[in-house]
Design goal:
- It is built from eleven helices and two strands.
- The protein has a two-stranded antiparallel sheet.
- Helix 1 crosses helix 3 and helix 4 packs antiparallel against helix 5.
């Protein structure tokens, strides 16, 4: 259990995130963002801490309100997305299913980053489709911005950024190759280009994943507790847990 301002928090990710957000809300804005943990749920707690500061309110319901607002925006973008691919009737049905989907409603009521990630994914998907459909570079930049922003909350979304960027680059090169090269040269470029891209990606991916890897927490049996009864086991384990999580500095709040 964690006690903060006479509020007792039980175990669970959302309460740890809330606790971490409350701590960060006491920092000044420059320190809040300069020391934020990107590509993890730590950036989510930074976002909520920023809202706490500008609203002068540290209620748990701020996160719930943010989730509901983002869900409403995501529903609008989902309708526009489907409308570009299907009929008006189909768009209405899919939006209705999305609005009443039980797990989506459930996550809206939690202090977790899932809703903001899902909403940013829908918004970025819309701009990706419109950018390709209309060959509009402004919409392509919108897609890159929103998907890059979503990767701040979870590093796995960075794959979406690489995928979309690769498609845009391929279509641009395809247009140039079709204009200026003969067919046999085009085949050579099409075969060699993905090989070069994959090579450059994989020689750097290990270093990237190593830098952002999550610290492994110790198991209770791996800790050498004092045998003379001089320390409370629960308190000692909690101190080691917090030190491993490094919750105030570098790592994700939900580790």
């Amino acid at each position: 259990f964690i006690t903060y301002n006479n509020i007792v928090f039980n175990e669970g990710d959302q309460y740890i995130l809330f606790w971490n957000s409350l701590y960060k809300s006491n920092l000044n804005i420059l320190n809040l963002f300069s020391g934020s943990e990107i590509f993890t749920s730590g950036f989510y707690t930074t976002t909520l801490a920023f809202l706490y500061k500008i609203l002068s309110n540290n209620s748990f319901n701020i996160a719930i309100s943010l989730n509901i607002t983002l869900s409403l925006i995501a529903t609008i973008y989902l309708f526009k997305l489907v409308r570009n691919l299907a009929t008006l009737q189909t768009s209405k049905i899919i939006c209705f299913i999305f609005a009443v989907y039980p797990f989506f409603i459930y996550y809206n009521l939690l202090f977790l980053r899932d809703t903001i990630i899902a909403s940013l994914f829908i918004i970025s998907s819309y701009y990706f489709l419109i950018g390709l459909k209309n060959n509009n570079n402004i919409y392509k930049l919108y897609f890159l911005f929103f998907v890059f922003l979503s990767s701040f909350y979870h590093i796995a979304n960075f794959i979406l950024l690489l995928t979309g960027l690769s498609i845009f680059i391929f279509l641009f090169i395809d247009n140039l190759v079709y204009r200026y090269f003969k067919s046999n040269i085009r085949y050579i470029i099409y075969v060699s280009l993905p090989i070069v891209i994959l090579y450059l990606f994989f020689i750097n991916i290990y270093e990237i994943l190593t830098y952002f890897q999550i610290t492994k927490l110790p198991k209770l049996g791996d800790i050498n507790f004092p045998t003379d009864g001089s320390a409370n086991l629960n308190n000692l384990f909690f101190e080691i847990l917090i030190s491993k999580m490094n919750i105030y500095k570098l790592s994700s709040a939900s580790q």
